[in-house]
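Entry 14. Ran structure prediction on the chain below.
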Amino acid sequence: MSQTEGARLFREAWIAGVRQHFPGEPKAGYVTPWEGTPEWERQAADSVYEQVRHFIEISGGHAARLSREQKSRFVATCWTAQMYQHFEDPKPGYVADWPELPEWQRETDADIFEVIQKSLG
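Output, structure tokens:
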């Protein structure tokens, strides 16, 4: 899978997760299609996709045994690192620790991990 395809897969998994787990109507920015996604966010999606992909590969397939919480925490931590890379002073919500994230976001992050995992066969 090319870098762009991996980043798009990440974004599509995010949008699907938001639509499934977000209570009520999500903000437009949460479900903006790839074509409307800002460049910094595309780069962050690519980086996190690559981190998850690599993590799954070096685990020899055993990352599948992680709990949904562990999968979600991994994605959230990778994303937080990207926020520090792309913003000098990120909004607190962008870098909140996993326990402070809303339930819908924790579930969406776990879904992202599992979508990437399935894409790798």
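The mean pLDDT is 95. Will compare against last week's run tomorrow.
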